[in-house]
Amino acid sequence: MTPIVSIQHLNKSFPGVRALDDCQFELLAGEVHALMGENGAGKSTLMKILAGVYRKDSGEVLLDGKPVEIDSPAHAQSLAIGIIHQELHLMGHLTAAQNIFLGREPRNTLGLFLDEAQLNRDTQVVFDRMNLAMSPTTPIGELTVARQQMVEIAKALSHKSRVLIMDEPTAALNNAEIEELFRIIRQLKTEGVGIVYISHKMDEIQRIADRITVMRDGAYIATVPAATPMQEVIAMMVGRKLEQSEKTIPDTSANEVVLDVRGLNRGRVIRDVSFSVRRGEILGFAGLMGAGRTEVARAVFGADPIESGEVRVRGQVIRLRSPQDAVQAGIGYLSEDRKHFGLATGMDVESNITLPSLKRWLKWGMFLNRPAIQAISQQMVEKLRIKTPSLTQTAKLLSGGNQQKVVIAKWLVQDCDVLIFDEPTRGIDVGAKSEIYKLLNDLAAQGRAIIVISSELPEVLQLSHRVLVMCEGRVTGEVRGDEATQESLMALATRRETGATVH
Amino acid sequence: MSEPTTSSSSWLARLSGGQAKQKLLAFASLIALILVFTVLKPDAFMTQDNIIGILQSTTVIGVLAIASTFIIITSGIDLSVGVLMTFCAVMAGVFMVNLGMPMPLGVVCALGMGAMSGCVSGLAITKLKVPPFIATLGMMMLLKGLSLLITQTRPIYFSDVEGFDQISLGSLIGDVFPSLPIPNGVLILFVVAIISAVVLNKTALGRYTFALGSNEEAVRLSGVNVDRWKVIIYTFAGGICGISGLLIASRLNSAQPALGQGYELDAIAAVVIGGTSLSGGVGTILGTIIGAFIMSVLINGLRIMSVAQEWQMVLTGLIIILAVYTDNLRRNKK
């Protein structure tokens, strides 16, 4: 049987990153093929090439055995390849039918006016095929996320797709909704649609998938039957035994507890999270995307409200109504998204460095004391080896690693006791990475309490004295830094409440 | 990359927020306009009377534009500045004419009313989370109504307040140098401009003004009290609008309650021509002043050339679009 899709020797590079390295993939008609790998393994890139979002550098994509050059999402659609992205792309004020046929609305005979009745009939046909009880005229905004996802699937099917790519389709669904989704997937299978299923959730994959392809660092590792024991799959995913530099974990058990968080709750996102960090300690937060780590950090920093819970800094309960309260208590937060939350990119280096601590650099409580601002900024630039032509360089012109150092400098100047690093090395090249690792170790050695949130397990393992693992808003485990392995962390990170865990 | 700078040019660059090049473009356009009108109407344009007329006619819009510059750099907008100016003029009348306050006290109280109104806008934006466009649109209508109610739609005349018209029309410079009868209003415009440039570039208020427009969320996550600073900035801008209220009342020697609407758009135009970005984070006082002068030179020149008022409007509209277009070109080239 000729596979519907066959990808061979595929390569793709982005500036500074080799995203895909001689990749291969195969999809049969009527098959659910799971694509697995750590964050950044190249799963999404591979599928975006298939869906025409990116163009390949070299290699072959065969559809029904014939080579194709997919050059745009529209072209992919015309080749019957549909993709359902992780984020939904629907217009809330339009109806389900209007969304599904956006851009190809049926017209009446004169071609002047839209034929709304025909539109709704066409949509009903797709819904019937999916066995979906939904009115085509329901406004999208009134639907739950799960139902919206069904509309996305309907949209893909309305293009007569024979290949359907689903990127983390269950991320926002509850169990009943997942059942509904699986029912539709099984229905589509019987019609010969090939489905690529990207997910981190092992239990789901074992239930719905036929085969699993594992990727790691942009490379193809193996394709195995879905019945393969999950431990084996995880071992393939994390793969390499990282040649770690010898790590010594200092004994901080007698140090003062600087940050103590008890019973933090917010909806389904943060569920009864408690932890503490001592002076000189680096606490790692591991987990998959969406596990709630960033949400916990933002809550502790006062950036998002909490429903219940208590945060103590050096034994004192602090009221967290805004980041201002957290900063005053000595907490600094380095966001995972520098450009949106960390830097005022249009402003210069010295303005950014002194932003949280500006009060200290004023004369008569009002005027900027530029000599002082320049002095402290210069000191930081030298200390952190920030590569910038001058202190008045606009922040957006710096490289990612140097931007991150500017953000770190901000909080060093503010002299925080607790520093929360959210994905500190995202988008940073390898050289700058090791510099930032060294910096974090130095900061801990100086007696600061450090929290590192990272989706890269090797990074968590290399840095952390102690690792906290989260899954679906809960803390699912705590491991000593020298006892943690990628396998043990991954198992904890996928320990879902439903009980269908990886054991 | 960094060209050698003499001390004077780096001073200029710093005071203009390090965007000397952009200012140069606007300044060159202003000079070009002046040259064109000088060549076309040498005997009417470059006369002392006409130049003083241009300066005088720029004062009110210039001061309003300075206030707007602060707001626009935060990536906000203030539609109430024109009417706020009138409201302050009216309140000056109430304080000095109706209540008989001495002039200095009346001036301070009128400025206070401006600051208070700005504060209300700021609170509506931060505490009630009403977008600046709507909050200040509401304030515009509200203040216009109040001005008309307070005056019962009749102007208040300052004829009995001795020296009030001298605020705008007198000439301290002319007293010293009789050959240079520059009105006080112009002096006030430049003093306000210099103080505002210092505030914008040398104080915490200015730093946060840019920071808010550049990335408000990053500022919030830096532990800065974003709401408080926004209210302070709107209050400060309101106070500056109060100054323009006094200027116009003094020039007309009366508070005209129906005046003012539409001035906010002229002010915004001046700010934008001066290179301040409506998306925030970028802008200078010097640019705004140049922008205000480009507008008034254009209108004055066209009037001298007997161009019909309707055509003046058409040309001004085109100039605004052209100015922002060339600014975009320059930006995109980078």
Question: What does it look like?
Answer:
The complex is a heterodimer of chains A (503) and B (334). Chain A has 17 helices and 22 strands. By secondary structure, chain A is of the alpha/beta class. Chain A has 3 domains: 5-238, P-loop containing nucleotide triphosphate hydrolases (Rossmann fold), CATH 3.40.50.300; 255-330 and 417-503, P-loop containing nucleotide triphosphate hydrolases (Rossmann fold, 3-Layer(aba) Sandwich), CATH 3.40.50.300; 347-415, no CATH class. In chain A, helix 4 crosses helix 5 and helix 13 (370-383) packs across helix 14 (400-414). Residues 499-503 of chain A have low confidence and may be disordered. Chain B has one domain (19-326): ABC transporter involved in vitamin B12 uptake, BtuC (Orthogonal Bundle). Chain B is built from 15 helices and 2 strands. Chain B has a two-stranded antiparallel ribbon. The radius of gyration of chain B is 20 Å and the shape is globular. Residues 1-18 of chain B have low confidence and may be disordered.
Shape of chain B: globular
- Terminal-residue CA separation of chain B: 13 Å
What is the CATH level 1 assignment of the largest domain in chain A? Alpha Beta
Helical amount among residues of chain A, as a percent range? 25-40%
Total helical segments of chain B: 15
Query: Approximately what portion of the residues of chain B adopt beta-strand conformation?
Result: under 5%
Number of domains of chain A: 3
CATH fold annotation of chain B = ABC transporter involved in vitamin B12 uptake, BtuC
Number of domains of chain B: 1
Quickly give the CATH architecture of the largest domain in chain A: 3-Layer(aba) Sandwich
Query: Main sheet of chain B?
Result: 2 strands, antiparallel
Percent range of helical residues of chain B: over 70%
Main pleated-sheet profile of chain A: 6 strands, mixed
**What oligomeric state best describes the polypeptide chains here?**
heterodimer
